[in-house]
Amino acid sequence: MKKYLYGLKESGFMFYKKLSKLLTDKSIGFEQLTKEDPCVFIRREKGGFLSILGVLTDDLLFLMKDDKIAEVVKKLEKAGLKIPHVKEVHKFNGLEIQFTQDASQLSINQSVLIKQTISDLEHKLGYQLQEYDTIPNAYFHLEDKMIDVDKKFYQSLVGSLNWISQMSRPDITHVVASAATVNKCPKQNHLDILLELFGYLKKTAGRAMTYRRPEDGVPEITIFTDSDWMSKGVDYDILSHHMETNIKSQSGILIMFNETPIYWNSKKQDCPAQSACAAEIIAASTAYDNAIPILSLLNTFGYSLSRTLHFIDNESAIKTITNDKMNKVLAAMKRRYGNIKYLITELISFPIYVGTKHNIADYLTKSRDKLKMSTEAFNQNINLIFGDHFKSKKDFMDHIKSLCSDAVFAKIPWADYYNITNYDQLIVKRKEDLEAGYQIYE
Predict the structure, then answer these.
(1) Backbone phi, then psi, for 344, in 5-degree steps?
(2) Fewest C-beta atoms under 10 Å: which of 195, 270, 280, 353?
(3) Strand bridging mode 31-32 / 40-44
(4) Cβ neighbours around 356 below 10 Å, total
(5) pLDDT tens, 101-138?
(6) What is the DSSP letter of 101?
C-alpha cells in the first residue's frame, strides 16, 4: 500500500511515525518524551521558554508563542505535511475549553456531548428523562425475577457515560464503574439507574472543572486513595460464566493538581484482598501507576516535586507499608507495599493518615447513601472535585496543612528517621531536596 486510507488503524500510526520523525529532526528540534508520554514533544527556546506540542491522532495542540507556532507549521508544510488551519483551542478531544481573558483560569466540560446524548435518548429512542438534583445510589445487584434488558443498548449507555466520567465528570465515576459490573446481564432496575443518572446530567450539563494558575507559579500534586473492602455488588466468574456475589474490593483514586483533580478513578481491584488493610494497600499502590507519569512529566517541565503527600484513611495500612518486620499480611502484600516503601526512600511519596471524613477519595468507593456525611458535606465534596470549593492553591494548601496536624505526624513510624515531625518541617525538607538537585527517578 503506497498510501494509507483515512480510518484504518495503520493510518494513524503511520501519520504519528512521520510526524514524530519530522518534529525530532534537527531542523525543527523537538524532543520526544518517550518515557513520560510519547505523544508529547518539547523544545527549549532561547530565554528558557518551553515550547510544548501534543499529538492526538491527527490533531496537534500547541503550547507555544505565536511566532514559534508559525515557524513550526511552516517547516512541517515544507516537509509535505499539510496543516489546514491553526486557531485558538476551544474544543479538543471532545472537551470544551474556556479561558479567562488573562488566561489565569480555564474550565473544561462536555456539555455539547452530554446534551447530544440526552437528545438522542429522548427524541430517537423515546425516553422521557426527568431532571434530578442528586446522583442516584449505585444499587447494581442481581436478584431473582428481575427483567432482562437489551445487553448491547445497556453497554452502549455505560460506554457513553464512562467516556464522560473519565474526561470531565468525576462526580458520576463511582456509579458508572458500578454499572459496568453488570454489563453481561443488565436488568431493568440497572437501566433505570442509568436513566436517572442521565437525568442528573441533564440538570447539570454545564458543570465544568476549573483549573487556576497558582500564585507562586509552582504546581502541587496531592494524592488521596481509599478502598471499600469487599464492596457489595456482583462480579463475573470466568470459570462458571455466571455473575457471582462480589468478593473484590473497590479502589478510589484522586490525584489533585493544586485545588482541582487531574486524575480520578473508581475501579474494582484485580484480586480479592484478605483484609481492609490489604485493600487499602492495593489502592495506594495502584495510585502510583498514574501519579508517577504525572510527576515525571512535571519534572521534565522543570518542576521537581519531592515527598508528595499521599492521604490514606487506614493507620494499619501506613504502618504495614513502612514496617520492616514480616508477618502474614506483609508476606502476601510484599510486592504491593514494597513498591510504596521504595517510593518513600526515593523521596517521591509521603504517606500520611487522614480521617475518612476528610478523605475525598471515599466518594469514589461507595454509593451515595453509604457515605457517612450530611447532604451539605456531600455537596461540598462535589464542589471540591470540580475545583469550585477552594478558589486558589493557597486556600487548598491551607486545608492540607490543617489535615497534617502534629498528632497525625506522630502516627507516622518513620517520620523521625527523616527528621520530619510536623508539616512545616516537611515543607523545609522539600526546599532542601530542590536545592540539592532532586530529580524523580528514571
Answers:
(1) -70, -45
(2) 270
(3) antiparallel
(4) 13
(5) 888 999 999 999 999 999 999 998 888 899 999 999 98
(6) T
**Rounded alpha-carbon distances, angstroms, from residue 40 to 30, 257, 329, 401:** 10, 19, 41, 34
Please write the tens of the pLDDT for every residue from 330-347: 666 666 667 888 888 888
Q: Is 366 left (phi over 0), alpha (psi -120 to 50) or beta?
A: beta
Give the global pTM.
0.91
Give the C-alpha separation, 139 to 231, whole Å.
11
C-alpha 62, offset from chain centre: 23
Strands 308-312 and 221-228: parallel
Distance, in Å, from the CA atom of 56 to the CA atom of 371, rounded to the nearest integer, reads 38
CB atoms within 10 A of CB 404: 20
Rounded CA separation 261/246 (Å): 29
Strand partners, 108: 97, 209
The C-alpha cell at 75 is 517547516
* CA separation for the pair 40, 56 (Å, rounded): 9
Nine-digit cell string for 194:
442509568
Distances from the Cα of 366 to the Cα of 294, 386, 410, angstroms? 26, 19, 29
Q: Which helix (H) or strand (E) holds 236?
A: strand 234-237
CA distance 72 to 334: 49
C-alpha–C-alpha distance, residues 400 and 194, integer Å: 35
Q: Which three cell numbers, joined as nine digits, stand for 232?
A: 457489595
